[in-house]
Amino acid sequence: MSLEQLIKDKIAASGPISVAEYMELCLAHPQHGYYIKQDPFGSRGDFITAPEISQIFGELVGLWCVEMWAQLGGGPMALVELGPGRGTLMQDALRATRHIEEFHASLSVHLIETSPILQTVQFHTLQNLHERIVWEERIEDLPDKPTLFIANEFFDALPIRQHVQTANGLRERRVGVDDAGALCFVMDGNGLSLAKGDSSIKEGTIIESCQMGKAVIGKMADHIRQHRGAALIVDYGYLGDSHQDTLQAVKQHLYHPVLSEPGDADITAHVDFATLLEVAASHGVATHGPVEQGKFLVRLGAELRVERLLATADDEQAVQLISGIKRLIDPAQMGVLFKAIALLSDHSFIPAGFYVPQRP
Question: Whole-structure pTM over 0.85, yes or no?
Answer without folding.
Answer: yes
